[in-house]
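Sorry to interrupt, but I need a hand with the structure work. Could you add the entry underneath, on a fresh line?
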Amino acid sequence: MDSTGTRKRSAEKIEVAEPQNKLPCSAPSLSTEPALYSGSFPFYRRPSELGCFSLDDKRQYYGDARALRYYSPPPTNGPSPNFDLRDGYTDRYQPRDEEIQERLDHLLRWLLEHRGQLEGGPGWLAGAIVTWRGHLTKLLTTPYERQEGWQLAASRFQGTLYLSEVETAAARAQRLARPPLLRELMYMGYKFEQYMCAGEVDCTDPQASSTQPPTCYVELKTSKEMHSPGQWRSFYRHKLLKWWAQSFLLGVPNVVAGFRNPEGFVCSFKTFPTMEMFEHVRNDRDGWNPSVCMNFCAAFLTFAQSTVIQDDPRLVHLFSWEPGHPVTVSVHQDGPYTFLPTWYVEAMAQDLSSPPKTPSPKD
């Protein structure tokens, strides 16, 4: 399950103070050096869908698949569709307020509503890891990331490990100073999705070999058109890595890309089968390796599971990473990094026979 949003904010000076509630602890760390994770590919079972929920254009939650749309590409033998990806940006686009931190809230609400129907019963969550696909995508690409760091807050509650991303000071500064062109490029990605299925990022392909999710799903992406081998090489090394990580994690078989010209019109399409993406960099010494990505992700999750021992929803282990450095950990109690909402903690602590409390925006 994944959620997308649009971003807009004025630039301002950023000052970050060290939280006063930081607890003393030892300093475990985890290296991200690719050579350490170049072994064989780890065991990874094909993902299965437990359920779904939808968010409308106002980020309102619905516990069903109403936002899922059918993939409807233009005819392959017809003229170029000439999709205008700038259409609606200046007069109809309403970006969401990124200062509102949704964290894991939508995912937690789904879990709360379906805790009694999970395969194996509610105890199935004990020992599991609950997080967003986007967070795992960042873990998979970490050994090859050279520009952007990340922070993940982790808490254990009723045996379950929860991971929620924390916006770094550098990421916040970049977001608040985001230039108009970058905002427009982000909008173009959402506009492409509307042209192709009038829905959100994921859509279902009625012509897929199987109607069962996730095999029937399609990822939609946009990129600038490329004119030289060097541009394609950079695309395969960087952007295709992130597309592979996103799609492989959920078992989505294909990514359909729309390539745009400088004027913002889609000029061509290309389908990238997820399981064939690595072939574009297999013989590139500066390329990426799926085994390295998955082995590091597995190592990090093991590291997190063994580090976050105490079962306390108010206790947060903050895992931090910057390119060129190992992953480090700090511990915080009842502070700004706490992310499991009171309504979720209280409801999960109730007997299953009691009806769960409907969360309010103020909780």
